[in-house]
Amino acid sequence: MQRIIKLTLFITGIFVFHACYFDKEELLYPSGNGCDTTNVTYSGTVAPILENNCNTCHSGTDPFAGILTDNYDDLKTIVDNGRFWGATSHDPNFSPMPKDRPQLSECSLLQIDIWIKNGALND
Q1: Residues 6 or more apart whose Cβ sits within 8 Å of residue 97
Q2: Which is nearest to 72 in space by CA: 47, 89, 54?
Q3: Which of 105, 112, 111 is nearest to 79 (CA)?
């Protein structure tokens, strides 16, 4: 009888201790989400986003809606008047951009927002 009790306790202990483990948060949720927001600049961060998502329509001699995004000076004008953030963030008061395409990624929007809030500098 004692042997059965010991065996039962042993087996129960194996299941209890095997079922209990502690995940390390840093392994399950590595820092960041792959979005680099440490050194957001126009030339290194924002310009490539625009090249991949905006400049196809908003560059050249006949840009869509007369809006140029392929150079800093023209972009700064629409940043300063709020049209750029309104369009890219899909604010309902603006025409959502990119037109007929999904909204920019959360990471790209975050990077653009950081750049604007830091003064939208030409760096």
Answers
A1: 54, 87, 88
A2: 47
A3: 112
pTM of model > 0.90: no
DSSP assignments along the chain, one per residue: -HHHHHHHHHHHHHHHHHH-----HHHHS-SS-S---SS--IIIIIHHHHHHHTTTTS-SSS-GGG---SSHHHHHHHHHTTHHHHHHTT-TTS--SSTTSPPPPHHHHHHHHHHHHTT----
**Phi and psi for 69 in degrees, rounded to 5?**
-120, 5
Residues 54 and 67 sit within 8 Å (Cβ to Cβ): no
Structure tokens at 74: 């023209």
pLDDT at 78 over 50: yes
Q: What is the mean pLDDT of the chain?
A: 86
- pLDDT tens for each residue of 6-49: 666 666 656 655 554 455 444 444 445 689 999 999 999 999 99
For residue 77, give both structure tokens.
């004008």
